[in-house]
Write a structure and sequence with these properties.
Layout lengths: L14 E2 L4 H14 L28 H5 L10 H4 L7 H6 L18 H15 L3 H10 L11 H6 L9 E3 L5 E3 L12 H4 L2 E2 L1 H12 L14 H8 L3 E2 L16 E6 L4 E5 L2 E9 L4 E7 L4 E7 L5 H16 L17 H15 L17 H5 L3 E5 L3 E8 L6 E5 L2 E7 L6 E6 L12 E7 L6 E6 L8 E5 L8 H21 L13 H16 L6 H9 L11
Antiparallel strand pairs: 1-4, 2-3, 5-6, 6-7, 7-8, 8-9, 9-10, 11-12, 11-18, 12-13, 13-14, 14-15, 15-16, 16-17, 17-18
Helix pairs in contact: 1-5, 1-6, 14-15, 15-16
Length: 555
Amino acid sequence: RDVEKNLPFTTETLTTIASMSKSFTASAIGTLIDQNKISLGSQVKDFIPDFQLKDPPATHVRIRDLMTHRWGLASHDKTWILGSCPQDPDKFAGTFGTLDPDRPFRWDSQYSNLAWFLAGHTATKAAEEPYETLLQNNILTPLGMTSSTTNLQEALNRTNYAYATPYEVGKGGKPRRLPRDANSVLNVVCPAGCVISNTIDLAQYMIFHMNLGVSNLTGQQVVSKKTMQALHTPMQKFGSRAQLRPKYPTSRLYYMPDYAAGLWVGTFRGYRVIQHSGTGFGMSSMMIMLPDVGIAGVAQFTTCTSTTGRIRLLLQGIDMLLGFKPALNATTICPPKRTASEAEEEAEFEEEAKEHPHDTLVEQDVTPAVSTASLNGYLGTYSHPAYGELHVTSVSPTGNSLLYNIGKANGTLTPLMNQTDTFKMIVHEEIRTYPTWAETPVTFHRDADTNLVDAVRVPWEWRVPAIVFTNSRYNKTMTPQQCRSTFCSNIASRLQAAKASRRSRGPLSTSTDPLLCAYYTKLRNCYLDNLCGVPSDICETLMNCGVTHLGCWGA
C-alpha cells in the first residue's frame, strides 16, 4: 500500500473502488424500490421537476435509462475530473441542460458516469436524505461493511484499515506516487464512483449479491429477491466493443455482452457471470461473481491496471477453484499479437478520428513569433455552467505563450502557426493524471463588432461541438486606463477616428452625432462588461447622448 515505506497491502487496506460503486448505488435504489419510493421506470422529473436536457425527449429520462447508459449524452467526464464543476449536486445536475448529446435518446449505450451520478442523485430526492446517508443506512450497515465509506477524508485520517497510496507508472516503468487525495474529484459524482472499501467488506458485498439480497452477517433480506433478480437481469447490449474478455486463452469462454444495473452480465465456461471493474486515479479494482456455483473474486490495485489484466488474474483463481488447469504462466501472461479483427477495429477507430479534425493537432504546430501585447488580449476568465471557469491568467515568462488553469489542471496555451486565435493546450506533467487528455487545439472567438475575444472553444468531446467558455473578464480591480488598454482599445481607436472626422463644433447629441454617441456607448459598455469603472469624462459626454452615467469611475 506504500512503496516508499515498504508497507504491505492486506485484506484490510482501503482503496477507492471507482466504478464498482455503481452497483452499490443500484443496490441502494433497490431498497427504495422495495419501499415503493421509486421504480426503474421513474422519471428524473418525477423528483426534480425543473430538470432539463438539450434533447427534449431525453428530458423525460428514466432511472432504467440512466442505469444502462442510454440517455444520449456525451460522457463530459472532464466536468468532474478537473474538479471545476459546481460541487453542489443540485447545482451540478442543473447544468446538464447545457451539455450536448452525441446520439439520440435511447438509440445506443455510451458508458456514462454522469448518468449514474444522476440516478443516485434522483434516489436521494426519493429517499429525502443525502447519498452518503442512504448508502450507509440501507447497504453498508446491514451488510456489516464496517470499514467501507464514501468519505475520502475520513479514510485518509484512519490509522486502522489504512487507505492505500495511489500510484501511476512513471518513467522507466517505475511507480510514480500520486497525491493521496487524488480521487477526491470523485466526490461530486459520488454515486458513480466514490465508494471506498477493502477485500473483507467486498467479500460480504459479493455474498449479498449471490444470496440475492440476503446479508451474510445477519440473514436479513436487505433487498427483496424479486428486486435483486431485476437488478441482475440484462437491460442493454453494448455490442462488440463491450465484450470484455481476455485474448488468451479464454477468449471463447468468457463473454460479457450485456449490461444490467451497474453490472456486466455474461458467461465463463458456461457459468453465469456478473461482474464490474473500477478505475480511479492511481487505483483500480475488479469483482467477478459466479452465483450458480457460489464462487466470487475481487482484486484491488494501487495503480491503474488494464481491465483485461484484472480479468485474467481473477479467472486464474476461479479456474483453480473450478478444478481446471490454470491458464496463466510465464508465456501466457502477456497479451498476444493483435488478431486480424483487432487490427481492423483499430483501423476503423483511426478512420473515425479523421472525421473529427478538431480533436487532433495539425502537424505544423511551430510556434510563431508573437508579442506580449497581442497575447494580453486573450487574458481573462472564461466560464461554462458545467465545466466551470477556465482562467487564462498571464503571459508565460518566455513571452510566447499563455498560462492557464481550470480546476486541478494548469498548463500553457501556445499559438499555432498559420491559425488565427488557435492555441495548443498543454497540461503540465505534474498534474497530467487528472485530466487525461492529449495536447488539445483550442480556438478563441472574437466579437464581430469589437474584435475583442469573447469566448474560447475547447474540443473535449468527440461527435459534439466544442465546449464554449464565455469571457467573464476576471479582473475586477483594473483602472479605466488599464481596462481600455487590455479590452477596449479597439473601440477606443474607432471612437477617436469618429471624433477626428466630426464636422460639428457644437455639443454632442444623438441627433447630430449618432455614430459618435454609439461608440461612446460601446466603450462605456466595454468598461462595465469588464467590471471596470467608466472615466468621468466619458460619463459626462454620454449624458449629452441621453445615456445614464451609472458606473462612472469613483461613483
